[in-house]
Every structure is written in structure tokens, then in C-alpha cells.
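This is your field. Have a critical look at the following sequence-structure pair:

***
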Amino acid sequence: MQAEALIRHLLKEARTKEAWDVPLLETRFVVVDTETTGFNPNTDVLIAIGAIEMIGDQIVPARTYHSLIRPEPERMIPPVVVKLTGIRNEDVATAAELSKVLHEFLDFAKDAVLVMHHSSHDVRFLNAALWLKSRTHLTHRVIDTFDVAKWLRPSLNQYGLDELLATYQIPVEGRHTALGDARMTGQLWKLLIHESIEKGVSTLGDLYEQIVLSKR
């Protein structure tokens, strides 16, 4: 019950700061990536969370978070996921419990705007975990670098992380690890911020409006 209360408290705090009108270059972002046993949050589970902090377009090197997670409910990691991520069943067997990792991650994120690539996957799994442990969901604002890149570069054929890393000439290091992907997504977000500002977008609210308009 104490862990549930802490998670609820941290999520409540995440709603207290209004970021809509804050300039992008002054906004605190936390870039997040997760690793999971599969793609269905109803049957698969989180096995790792990685995150880095950014203030505007500046990555804060000393501010990172990463943890493996003991699968809850218990699941075996499929061989294809082991091969892709390098995370083995024996690695997570003694990893931190889900409640502890959620608490640590939310304490790291606080009221930051969360940045993810293909955010629906990560958000669905984070929400499934939060619902399991505390009957609540993320309250943070979320930016999806997929949507931002699609608005900025409508002529590209593909917007997967690998394709965008190649387009923006970002070195690939630690691909398919939660912290490695968070770091590379942070590098991508830094460049997307610059391009957004060049297009006249200065605040988070401006950016959301442009993304919505680009989908119409």
C-alpha cells in the first residue's frame, strides 16, 4: 500500500506544473524508452526502462535512469527478444521489483514532459504497469518524435527510429537497449527542437498545434 501511495503522489505532482506556454528551450524533458517481452500489454510486460534528462535542447549527461525489471506477472523472455535486446531471463530473475522501478522512474521524471519514439508502445506498457500496481495511469504530457519528424519532414518515406537516426546522421550506439535508445532519441529530439524553432514554433503548445494540424 505504501508503494501504491508513493506512485499516486508522484503522478499527482506531475500534473501541477503547466508546460503549455513554456519555451521549448526552457522546458525540462525526460526522454524515455522501454524494453518489453512483446508487443501486447495485455499479455507481455516491461523488462527495462531507460531515461535521460534534457533542459531544452541540452542533454544533461549526469542525469540518466536505467533499470532492468523482474517481469510481473512472471513471464519468460522470448528468444527473439533476448537476441534483440541482450536481456536474458537470468538477468531479470534478480532484477528490481516493478513497484520499485516505477517509483524510481516517476521520481526521476517528476513533472517533465516525456519524449518517446512511437510513444504509443511505451505509454501502453507504462500504463499497464501503473494500473497493475496502483490503479492509475501516466499524467505527463508526451511528445512523440515520430509525429514531430513527420510534421517537419513530410517527404520522408519512413519514420522509424533507425531511418531517422540515418537521416539525421546520429551514431547508433546501444540500439534496442532502453538507455541506448533513450540517448539516441534524445539526440534526435535535440535536432527536431532546432528545426521546429526554425519553423516558428517556440513553445510546447505551438508544437502540439502544428502536429494536430499536420494530421488533418
